[in-house]
Amino acid sequence: MATITSAEVFVTCPGRNYVTLKITTSDGVTGIGDATLNGRELSVASYLRDHVCPTLIGKDPARIEQVWQYLYKGAYWRRGPVTMTAVAAVDVALWDIKGKVAGLPVYQLLGGAARDGVTVYGHASGNTVPELLDDVQRFLDKGFRAVRAQAAVPGLERVYGMRKGDGDTYEPADGELPTEEVWDTGAYLDFVPTYMSAVRERFGYDFHLLHDVHHRLSPIEAGRLGRSLEPYRLFWIEDPTPAEDQEAFRLIRQHTTTPLAVGEIFNSIWDCQHLITNRLIDYIRTSVSHAGGITHLRKIFSLAELYGVRSGSHGAGDLSPASLAAALHVDLSIPNFGMQEYMAHLPGYEEVFETSWRFEDGLMHPGDRPGIGVEFDEKAAERFPYERKYLPVNRLRDGSVHDW
Ligand code: GCO
Ligand code: MG
């Protein structure tokens, strides 16, 4: 039996901070997993280095479920973003190893491809409506069949989800200390339907249109937004309300047929049990790296399948390529796949992560390299030392702290 001989943690900042766990076995096989938690990176690095890695040495890397249970139940302190991101990193690294040992891409170990490719959505944004329209055009020109649209709200200086430079991704985390933004729900609610209407007017209905609300609304406001967007037939509105209150989605549902997606900040199946079993959402957007890895994500999606809820994995640029690749393997193999986010990564990442995925005609495929198909270059990583960065904090006009 092979055993785990080392487990190392790397923190690197090629464009943005990523935490990577690398596990090596006595047979010399290595596997990697993403342990990045945006703005709280070092806490997961410490959780792994100081508490998890020493316990992995000598364990059988093939017993993925047992190692998962050991880390989840064995710690006594369960769940939470730091714990579950650490567990996820170990889990994905072990799946990567299992694939390499078997000589198979991970999706083959999960039952094989249930579809030819994974439909992904890109992120279009604009400081003005014409700018947004140009950006939607850019994504459609690249072959995307699904586009998320976000525009700056007139009168507000900075709004989430906006790209600052060129490229396909944006980086919300900056500043040695958190920057601050100001929010106005009324202005937002009035403005969104005007630009969604402009998008449909210019490009028609032959592609999927999505929108992220980023937890900013109350349930009744979300119901109003959903209803006002019905003519534009959105694929989903994402995170309409703060996600802790699962029952709140019943009220949103009563007021709109716009599909609802939620889950990027969930860490476990328990965070979405009520939402799924009560059919209060249409898409569950948990991520492989924040919700316990491939092992746990599959359980969430299996529960969802039973209730007609489809997957919509989170895939922002602050999830490392190891995370996106792992998600693609899951997406390809499950029956109830819905949509995968593909925000892409800031330039620089490809010096540290070598990937095997491909994008063609709006679909992604993880590739057929054994394991998850991502290689991590530790030497290159050293050239990009960690930089402390925070996500912004959001306030209402009266100074109250609001959801970001
Ligand atoms: C998304 C997200 C992200 C988050 C980010 C926070 O839908 O892609 O909302 O952009 O803001 O992942 O770290
Ligand atoms: Mg989001």
Automatic annotation (TrEMBL):
Residues 129-259 form the Mandelate racemase/muconate lactonizing enzyme C-terminal domain. InterPro entries: D-mannonate_dehydratase-like, DgoD-like, Enolase-like_C_sf, Enolase-like_N, Enolase_C-like, Mandel_Rmase/mucon_lact_enz_CS, Mandelate_racemase_C, Mandelate_racemase_N_dom. This is D-mannonate dehydratase ManD. The gene is manD. Signal peptide: none annotated. Its EC number is 4.2.1.8. It comes from Streptomyces aureus. The keyword Lyase applies. The keyword Lyase applies. It holds the Pfam family MR_MLE_C. Coiled coil: none annotated. PROSITE patterns: MR_MLE_1, MR_MLE_2. It is an enzyme of class 4 (lyase). It comes from the Bacteria. One of its GO terms (molecular function) is mannonate dehydratase activity.
